[in-house]
Amino acid sequence: MRILEFDDVSLAFDEFGDRSAPAVLLIAGATQSMDWWTPEFCEVLAAEGLYVIRYDQRDTGRSTTSPPGRPDYTGVDMATDPVRILDALDVDAAHLVGLSMGGGIVQYLGVHAAHRVRTLTLVESSPAGGDAGELPAPDAALAAAESALPEVRDWSDAAAVVDHRVEGERPYAGSLGFDEERFRAIATGEVGRSRNMESSLTNHFLVADGVETDPSAITAPALVVHSDTDPLFPLPHGEALARMIPRATLLRVEGMGHEAPPPRVWDVVVPALVDHVRGRREDATSGTTGPDA
């Protein structure tokens, strides 16, 4: 792990693979450290000949934290941090992969820093602006599950925070089911190295404004990876993105929930992502990869 320091801000990041290979920058969702892009996933991509970068967004992991409920940064600060990472690594332009809120950041950069973006991959995301039409609301069960989460009374109690983190992720599982052992391992690692988990789980939702972006203004090739069982952003959200972005294709993934692609779908997602980065097109109907027509 390395630390980028600038303007009293610290951003922690990791690298996998050969720096001479095509650069792929992974951007996590709201409240998530880079731990949710697991080393195993990064290593699988690196083994395909990619230079993979993941990082802790502000208020997660080992990056800069603010007091809970009082973030001292904006949504635009978060949205431009990936460019700062690329600058630190002397990467002129990268292939950006964003999950959920990270997908919103990728859309922002695809418009406002287009020269730094080679391709976009949007995983379980939603249009960050523009005229997407009426899209379905999140599953009502999510709000019920959120209200039923046990309160963390002592944020220094690592076991309690891990339990809270795991239970918070459970309702976002798709039809493949909830792999509790895997999620608990990720949460344990995240809690063990994070500066302030209370800030991690609070502050991102307070800075969501300011990065609204019309996906139809994106010019780089885009791959939209979306599940048919995402309870937060149902499939029409991904379909809207693929429709709005001029050079986009849609990869439908059966059974995945609102999460970074789990190992059970790597055999579908990884080849599609690699082909996308390498300039080959995605067959949006079957979900299999193939060369450009």
Under the CATH scheme, which class?
A: Alpha Beta
CATH homologous superfamily label: Alpha/Beta hydrolase fold, catalytic domain
- Please state the CA-atom Rg, rounded to the nearest Å: 18 Å
End-to-end separation in angstroms reads 41 Å
Query: Any idea what the CATH architecture is?
Result: 3-Layer(aba) Sandwich
* Helix-strand string: EEEHEHEHEHHHHEHEH
Q: Strands of the biggest beta sheet: in what spatial order?
A: 1-2-4-3-5-6-7-8
Structural class: alpha/beta
Q: Total number of helical segments? A: 9
Pfam family, one: Abhydrolase_1
Domain AB hydrolase-1: 22-260
Protein name: AB hydrolase-1 domain-containing protein
InterPro entries: AB_hydrolase, AB_hydrolase_1, AB_hydrolase_fold
Tags for this model:
single chain; 293 residues; Rossmann fold; 9 helices; globular; disordered C terminus; AB_hydrolase_fold; AB_hydrolase_1; AB_hydrolase; AB hydrolase-1 domain-containing protein
Secondary structure elements and pairings:
Elements: E1 2-6, E2 9-16, E3 23-27, H1 39-47, E4 51-55, H2 75-88, E5 94-99, H3 101-112, E6 117-123, H4 140-147, H5 158-169, H6 180-193, H7 197-200, E7 222-227, H8 235-244, E8 248-253, H9 266-278
Parallel strand pairs: 3-4, 3-5, 5-6, 6-7, 7-8
Antiparallel strand pairs: 1-2, 2-4
Helix pairs in contact: 2-3, 5-6
Organism: Prauserella halophila
Protein name: AB hydrolase-1 domain-containing protein
Domain AB hydrolase-1: 22-260
Brief summary of the model shown:
The chain is α/β, with parallel strands linked by helices and 293 residues long. Helices cover 33% and strands 16% of the residues.
